Amino acid sequence: MPAIPLAKAPQPAATNPEQIRNFCIIAHIDHGKSTLADRMLGITGVVEARNMRAQYLDRMDIERERGITIKSQAVRLPWKSGIDGKEYILNMIDTPGHVDFTYEVSRSLAACEGAILLVDCAQGIEAQTLANLYLAMENNLTIIPVLNKIDLPAAQPEKFAIELSKLVGCKPEDCLRVSGKTGNGVEELLDQIVAQIPPPKGDPNASARALIFDSVYDTYRGVVTYVRVVDGHLSPREQIQMFSTGVKHELLDIGVISPEPVSSKGLGVGEVGYLITGVKDVRLSRVGDTVTTFHKPTKNALSGYKDPKPMVFSGLYPIDGDEYPMLRDALDKLQLNDAALVYEPETSAALGFGFRCGFLGLLHMEIVRERLEREFNLTLISTAPNVVYRVTKEGGEEVIVTNPSEYPSGKVDKVLEPIVRATILSPTDFIGTIMELCQQRRGTLNGMDYLSEDRVEIRYTLPLAEIVFDFFDQLKSRTKGYGSLDYEPIGEAEGDLVKVDILLQGETVDAFSSIVHREKAYPYGVMMTTKLRELIPRQQFEVPIQAAIGAKIIARENIRAIRKDVLAKCYGGDITRKRKLLEKQKEGKKRMKMVGRVEVPQEAFIAALSTNADAESGKVKK
Amino acid sequence: MSPRLSFYVHIPYCVKRCGYCDFNTYTPAELQGPDLAAVSANYIDAVIQEIEMASSSVGNAEVPTIFFGGGTPSLMPSADLARVISAIREKFELANDAEITIEVNPDSVSEQFLAHMREAGANRISMGMQSAAPHVLETLDRTHKPVNVARAVEQARKNGYEHVSVDLIYGTPGESFADWKTSVESALALPIDHISAYALIVERGTKLAAQVARGELVMPSDDETAEKYLYADESFEAAGFTWYELSNWSKPGGECRHNIAYWDGSFWWGAGPGAHSYFGSERWWNIKHPKSYQERIAKNESPIQEKENLTPENKADEFILLQIRRREGILHSQMSSSQISLAEKFVSSGDLDRESWAQNKLVLSKNGRLIADRIVRELVL
Q: Which of A236, A531, A590, B323 is most open to solvent, judged by the fewest CB atoms within 10 Å of its CB?
């Protein structure tokens, strides 16, 4: 039995780097990473069978429910190799599996020497996995290709072994075959991790340098920082320093996760563990930063620290205006754990007081919204997501636009919009329809490669705004669910963009303004005016709904004045019923918003804004 | 001085249920009986017993009006209905000029019934005419022949009923504007002094609601129904009928005093299953099913299903929502200053009568009557 009792295993701060293997698992959302991790925890004996629960390492409800990992984790697993009979310490560093968190993925990869490329052998590799694989290869990680779910009836290990071997540059027979569910092949995989992945290298006598690859806020302990020590040594009660800010912290606790936190005598070269300093805000202990000691600081930071940049913006408003202070508190709390979340107060004539929030991407946006609603019990309306535009006005003044209502009203010289490099993987049957979609979305084809006979990788340059608007849903429906998408920002490009305003009885409804490509202004205007005509109840007067670019009206609908709003009968038995209805309507009245003289039920706002907001929900659902 | 208390007497039986109707009424088949006589046996005894209960709970009261509604009161033996009138006369002070109305179905009413009820004190007939267009009557599941309406009205007049009213329904799926014109003209050709005209309401749970949901019947647009209302109002007014409530028109002196009692905050006692009552600050309603109702009464238990106590705010809301429907309208002095200022915009939109407003009174204009519920919402919310 290769599991080693924990007490007898090599101890933290006293483990020879030669005995350490640091690895991560690269996998798509539902390819079985968490199940494999669970199995490893069981086989190495760090979690006893009776304490086991599914997706042991996923901490948030959202992570378990959606089967995705949002924040990474690191677990120390003792293992006695079945090949050489020696004892080793395997540090498994869990990585987030989504495009929005590429930066966090890259930091996790930087903490490892090897990566398991885990692919569901009933589905094949997905675009985001491919992107992360390339990232791992750029980091010179040793890749162990693994086909998972070999127990499934639909498994096609031969087919996908060929695909993987092409991508990794190995032979198909080098791909390991496992079942996280049954445990089949997992021991062999652990042995191969020891055999193939090189041990960490570092100078134990140099100034301490440790890479922060994750930082998590915990209500009881404050910020828990996950590090990989590269050089030197970190010890308890020592004063540490963050390289980027120079801020000094007392090290209150240091230890390893196995898989619950265990305090240790420190962390040495190559080791992975946690630090607790008592800070309350993850922004003071940021992913990518280098930790060193105050008394013997390093002069050279580990490479790769950058500020995460919000790419997608949306307004978040409480449906009940009284919940505004609660929303502010909730955002403050979420930010403690999410350095990438930015927000500032914003007022909308239509929606009241809220916040303009910046996110890494659509999934990040949705997760934040969902956490606000679920963990803080808020009910929110979000405006359609938009990207950041750099607008140069006539005369040269530049304006950064994160909200369509900030778009300059006068003449505009030039508008720059963010563009991305998108990679789409799909069965070859759908090439035509995917190209059509990308063409409609102002894409430029960069190239196409066959992963296997029937699977293809298509690369496009696309404006991010086009992806933010309903792209993923379209891709999924056009490819019967088989297409997958990954994208990375590559800069900005000039676009022929205009702002379309929606006016109700001549008043602009700020929440509905949108920046769109000139050619799409008319369809957008027609779509919104038609939709609003259906959603807004008839008023006592006629209400024109218009879509306009500046002063030019491009689409128009009319809500005719109401003619009849009365119940014909009102006798003895009707009176109580009628009064009770009125009382109910009093409640409903609170949820009415006034746009000028026009009464708009909140449901109309939600419904009108929802098509765009629904688009990304498909992205994370299995 | 004794309080005034109107009486509503519910007759919860019909030969057939009409597709649009959600009233608390039952066919013999629904009550699992062989015929109407069997299912309604002893029913009137129970009603009379409830009237006795009313007497002991209210004490003495002057009764200005009695209304027999349903269901189909004309299905009951006239002697039974006469017993009810006698019971009220016995337990309360029935006013000398009391208005006593019987709702009748043009097909089931006989001349003998009319004569007997007139003798018993009834002086007003309300007849369910609904439409003069046979295909509209068919959609509504009404079985009567249009000619029977004229015959029954004549008989009522001949037998000395001072007031005769007909009910009309407009906005039935398939009813053309010409159909409605025919109905209005036919009604106006009758020797009557009162007309009620109701826009058809699709009530939840009815056969009509299901037909509309399935797309078998298509309800006309609100605009079309509004036009029909305006046409009716114009025709009635031209023929000497004046509106005194949203859906009610009468010749001078022909107003239904019983219905006015519902709108002006008077007290009323509803006897029978499902009937509502209002006295003091309490509103209550009886258990719905006739059998349960009779069982309770037989055990000398109260038939009340639920009671509510009206708060001053409830009363204020009800005052607005009822009174606004009347031509009498609402005096500025009966409104709060915020209600007066909220109402101003309806004066400028033409939904409130300008002349009345200038005389410090809120009265709906023709168009305003069509959006009365909306105006109420604005005023009380």
A: A590
